[in-house]
Amino acid sequence: MKIYADNAATTKMSRTAIDAMIPYMEEVYGNPSSLYEVGQRAKEALESAREEIAGIINASPQEIFFTSGGSEADNQALRSAAAFGARKGKKHIISSAFEHHAILHTLNRLEKEGFEVTLLPVHENGIVVPQELEAAIREDTCLVTIMTANNEIGTIQPISEIGEICRRKGVIFHTDAVQAMGHLPIDVKEWKVDMLSASAHKFHGPKGVGFLYAKKGTVLTNLIEGGAQEKGKRAGTENVPGIMSMAAALKEAAEGIDRNIAHQSALRDRLIAGLSEIPHSALNGDAVRRLPGNVNFCFEGIEGESLLLLLDDKGICASSGSACTSGSLDPSHVLLAIGRVHDVAHGSLRLTLGEEISEEEVDYIIKSVKEVVEYLRSFSPVWRDLMAGKSPFIL
Ligand SMILES: *Cc1c(COP(=O)(O)O)cnc(C)c1O
């Protein structure tokens, strides 16, 4: 069996998304800034994609700015709010401890440039407490940025409550909705967000394209200077095939959203129940307020990397919170943020299911993970010490 269970890392492009690109490479290949017909047709298509996307999140087309993906949208949102705040002498930013690195690394940069950053705790369940956020807001707070759903543990934040607080306090609110877009219903008006980031490759669209929603009246700062594309806020000839494909992928996701949420959450819960049978294991993050396809566990006494390699042998693509594979020995900042100690955080496994996942596949994952964890524990010195009572079990 071959099972791709790493949809939080990226998704397979849908047939609809692939088909939507082709005419804009073969026929309507003009530059949208050109005045002749093939250019103007590209321009019209681009604006229809903007309208389609805006409609899905209850925004106006003028509020959608196309970018090269989620990271760029995050960077531009933070830079824009920071620059706007600084002009008014406001240099305090509130975020959370478990944001994506596109947010955290930009915040590090802003700190070096004289901004002060408060990172709210996300507690054991992986959810920000709105009252704590409200208490952290100061006179000089220029931005609150809290992700809609976490990319590792899938927990969903109380975005509309946070939006309500920020609106009342007059603070700009940005949310990184990259993991949520196409997977949860999104309404920027109801949520009272000022800016929101999204990326096509997380909802079966192509890589290298995304968008920033910026509420009318939000002052944007350019990251890329050049031509007058995107109302002068993001220079560079538009990625027309990518944008057309993104709009088609989002439309498809939005149409199937209720069915997908029901199907995926049922199988997610089956997977959680199955893996919970493994002794000394624990689910990471809230069991209910989480993305429909996200399962993340810690298993005591094993290393996440070995787990991944053995699962790969069984045809299962998954991911681990410990970042050894990406060249660092630090465990995931997300797992540390929910209070997992280093040793436990190292033995983590993230399985992010696709919309087409079947019960049979979930049962195969459960069986395989059980086998692999047992096998790895059979020769783990850490596990031997735990079993001998030399060190206490944590989970
Ligand atoms: C994937 C991801 C990003 C980055 O998006 P790219 O399009 O890959 O740059 C940002 N934030 C979150 C939460 C993500 O999951």
Structure, explained:
It is built from 15 helices and twelve strands. Helix 11 crosses helix 14 (about 360-380). The strands form three sheets. The chain has a seven-stranded mixed beta sheet, sandwiched between helices. It is an alpha/beta fold and about 400 residues long. Helix 8 (about 190) links the parallel strand 6 (about 170-175) and strand 7 (about 195-200). The radius of gyration is 22 Å and the shape is globular. It has helices at about 15-20, 25, 35-55, 70-85, 100-110, 130-135, 160-170, 190, 240-255, 255-275, 305-315, 335, 340-345, 360-380, 380-385; strands spanning about 5, 65, 90-95, 115-120, 140-145, 170-175, 195-200, 210-215, 280-285, 295-300, 315, 350. Helices cover about 40% and strands about 15% of the residues. The longest helix has 20 residues, at about 35-55. The protein binds pyridoxal-5'-phosphate. Pyridoxal-5'-phosphate binds next to helix 4. The site of pyridoxal-5'-phosphate has 15 residues, from helix 4.
Q: How many distinct beta strands?
A: 12
> Low-confidence runs (pLDDT<50, min 5 residues)?
none
- Secondary-structure element sequence? EHHHEHEHEHEHEHEEHHEEHEHHEHH
**Rg, Cα atoms, Å:** 22 Å
Fraction of residues in β-strands: 5-15%
Query: Could you say which small molecules are bound to this protein?
Result: pyridoxal-5'-phosphate
| Intertermini distance | 31 Å
State the major sheet: 7 strands, mixed
Sum up the structure in keywords.
395 residues, alpha/beta, 7-stranded mixed β-sheet, 3-stranded antiparallel β-sheet, 15 helices, 12 strands, binds pyridoxal-5'-phosphate
